[in-house]
From TrEMBL:
Domain Hemerythrin-like: residue ranges: 4-126
Gene3D superfamilies, A to Z: nmb1532 protein domain like
Entry superkingdom: Bacteria
Pfam families noted in UniProt: Hemerythrin
Matches recorded under InterPro entries: Hemerythrin-like
Protein's UniProt name: Hemerythrin HHE cation binding domain-containing protein
GO cellular component: plasma membrane
Length: 147
């Protein structure tokens, strides 16, 4: 696995772990823990999206000239996931386990499909077109700064 692919895939797994902590807390009815875990997950997810949208995607688009391709699709999927996250926050605020579980399942499916596309298609393309650049270092700095 190349540098960008490895870094961003590892960050996907990190976000997945935070997502699971929130889901577990809701299932146990530990609302304060769930709120803290969801806040952490949302921050990590938004940090991941920001690193892609403000650094990785623009560099990839500049290097390839592709602005209507995979990055456009990924931005659209980011918007869908942000909407699902908003609905999860609402369900959590209402202490509604069923609504939360439904929205969490939706987000989980969106994330799994999205991550597969990034990890198997987009990130390897980024590694190919952006090798030898400082993009991986910039991504690493952004992802670690949010911690």
């Amino acid at each position: 696995m190349s540098q960008i692919t490895s870094l961003m895939t590892d960050d996907h797994r990190h976000c997945d772990e935070s997502f699971a902590r929130a889901e577990t807390a809701v299932a146990k009815g530990k609302w304060d823990d769930a709120s803290a875990a969801l806040t952490q997950f949302a921050s990590e997810l938004e940090g991941h999206f920001d690193a892609e949208e403000s650094l990785l995607f623009p560099k990839f688009e500049a290097a390839t000239g592709m602005t209507e391709g995979p990055t456009k699709v990924m931005r659209g999927e980011h918007a869908e996931m942000r909407s699902a996250l908003t609905r999860m926050r609402d369900a959590l605020a209402n202490k509604d386990k069923d609504d939360y579980a439904g929205e969490a399942e939706t987000l989980l499916i969106l994330m799994q499909q999205h991550n597969m596309k990034e990890e198997n298609i987009l990130y390897p393309m980024c590694d190919s077109h952006l090798s030898g650049t400082d993009v991986a270092n910039g991504l690493s700095e952004r992802l670690h700064a949010r911690a």
